Structures are given as C-alpha cells and as structure tokens.
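Journal club prep — side note

Before the paper discussion, L.F. wants everyone to see what a predicted structure for a comparable chain looks like in token form. Sequence:
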Amino acid sequence: MTQILAAEPQIFVTDMERSLAFYRDLLGFRTVFTFGEPVFYAQVGRQGARINLRLVASLPFDRAFRAREVDALSATLALDEADPLFREYQEAGASFHQPLRVEDWGAKSFIVADPDGNLIAFAGS
C-alpha cells in the first residue's frame, strides 16, 4: 500500500522576493527551489516541512473574507515542541496572529501571518 509521506501546502503570494525573505530570514526556512523567470513558483523548507509559494496578481481571499474568517489558516505545521520555536520567532521579531497558547484539545499552538496575511499555524506539545 502506498504511504503518504508529507504534505506541501501551496501559499498564494503577491511579491515573491518579499515572501522568500520572510520565510527565510524570519522563520528560518531555506529556499528549496525557485522556478520561472521571473520567479513565480518556489518552495521553502525547514526540517520535514515544505511550503510551496505561488505568485498571483491578487489574493484569493479578499478583505471581506478575512474580516469574516479572522482565523482562516493557510497551513498548519506539526511540531514535536512548540515552546522553543515560539521563543525563536519572538527573538527574531515575528508578529503573531495568535501567541502561544494551550488549545482545548491539549496541543500548544501559535499562528504567524506572512506579508500577504496567510496564517501559518505551528502546533505541537
């Protein structure tokens, strides 16, 4: 039987260079690859996580959607421990949509917004 090994969410961005810098410089991801001239598709990775970035002229979620669905996530990354990464991002100056907290189901999570407002959740013990 085929095993699913990982998920690679696709995040829509309006400025590829700005987004690559955010994921690389603030969140500690590395650029796995870029594609196109100019670049319109890229992948960033950190340990077992991969996020695909797709350049678009306008974001699929408009302001009305974001106003109604203030916590709509674009991706969730599973962690073994949330505390150390939260502290790392605090020290790097990340802006949190949701600071570290214990969820009702027991997980510790926090949410970071990228420059286009995509919400990336990090959750673990």
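L.F.'s comment for the group: The mean pLDDT is 95. Keep this in mind when we get to the figures.
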